[in-house]
Amino acid sequence: MEQFIHYFLHLIFPGILSYFLFKENWIRCYAILLLTMLVDLDHLLATPIFDPCRCSINFHPLHSWFAIAIYFILLFFKPTRVVAVGLLLHMATDGLDCFLSQNNCG
């Protein structure tokens, strides 16, 4: 169920959000929200690249609290607002994963 929630929040929910928040250009906004998943490229810096028991929040550089603060600031500027929404949604999803995985990893 955790994987379903994770992929729903990364792939389907951004489409729903785009449709309701950015109705005029929802397809373009949905594409931008999907592209913000490139933030996961920082996982390539970790060894191992994937660890199901590792919380990515504040472990990977683009998932750090400092980076999240910058993403939050980007919300206040219209040209970067959609990107900021995508990045913050991604961080919220990964944060939820941290919470949910605590039960499976001890």
Detailed description of the structure:
With 106 residues, the chain is an all-alpha fold. The chain has one domain (1-105). It is built from four helices and no strands. The protein is globular. The relative contact order is 0.17. The model has no long low-confidence stretch (mean pLDDT 92).
Keywords:
single chain, 106 residues, mainly alpha, 61% helix, 0% strand
Short synopsis of the structure:
By secondary structure, the protein is mainly alpha-helical. 61% of the residues lie in helices and 0% in strands. The model has no long low-confidence stretch (mean pLDDT 92).
Poorly predicted runs of 5 or more residues: none
Radius of gyration: 14 Å
Look at the helices and sheets and give the structural class.
mainly alpha
Work out the helix count: 4
What is the succession of H and E elements? HHHH
Q: Total domains, how many? A: 1
- The averaged pLDDT comes out at 92
Question: How far apart lie the N and C ends?
Answer: 18 Å
Organism: Flavobacterium microcysteis
Keywords: Membrane, Transmembrane, Transmembrane helix
Transmembrane segments: 6-22, 29-50, 62-77
Protein name: Metal-dependent hydrolase
Architecture blueprint of SSEs:
Elements lengths: L1 H20 L4 H10 L29 H10 L6 H25 L1
Helix pairs in contact: 1-2, 1-4, 2-4, 3-4
